[in-house]
Amino acid sequence: MKNEVVPVQIRGILPANSGCAIFVGNDEKVFVIQVEHNLGAVIGMFLRDQSKERPLTHDLMVNVFKGFGITVERVVITELRNSTYFARLILRQENELGKKFVELDARPSDCLALAAAHKRPVFVAKPLFESVEDMTEYLDKLNEAGGEQEA
């Protein structure tokens, strides 16, 4: 990414009828990315280091990455277009031939799941971060009421 980016973390997950609201942000601002309910649950499991009976899809990806010497370097949420967020998954492969970086288009939900699984950093493109609505007050109210599921 050539654009300037802002470091963020997953600040919370709130289940909803239509999926899950993933609160992403930092001390300056928090915004929401809507994801499918199952993916919200998976992200929560990775954040809690919760063991699973059988490997999930993102666990499989982690194992395949390990087998090929690939690590998740970072993820970047890049833009919002037509109410849909876009992201890039940056991978690093290191072996006897050297080091290679690959940047892939990916859904933010998958990127957040892989970042949580690998404990890797999440960034947001600065122009996007500046344009999203700040949901910090809403997240704070949820936390005060005890209604927010993950931290």
Question: Helix-strand pattern, N to C?
Answer: EEEHHEEEHEHH
Structural class, by secondary structure, is: alpha+beta
The overall pLDDT average reads: 90
For the record, the CATH class is: Alpha Beta
The number of distinct structural domains comes to 1
CATH architecture: Roll
Tally of contiguous helical segments: 5
Spell out the CATH superfamily: Bifunctional nuclease domain
The radius of gyration is: 16 Å
Instruction: Note the gap between the termini.
Output: 28 Å
Tally of strands:
7
> What percentage of residues falls in helices of 4 or more residues?
25-40%
Major sheet details? 7 strands, mixed
Which regions have little confidence, pLDDT < 50, spanning 5+ residues? none
Strand content: 35-45%
CATH structural fold name: Bifunctional nuclease domain
Strand order of the largest sheet: 3-2-1-7-4-5-6
Shape: globular
Describe the structure.
The chain has 151 residues and is α+β, with helices and mostly antiparallel strands. The protein has one domain: Bifunctional nuclease domain, CATH 3.10.690. The protein is built from five helices and seven strands. It has a seven-stranded mixed β-sheet. A hairpin with a 2-residue loop joins strand 1 and strand 2. Helix 2 crosses helix 3. The longest helix is centred in the first third of the chain and has 11 residues. It is globular and about 50 Å long.
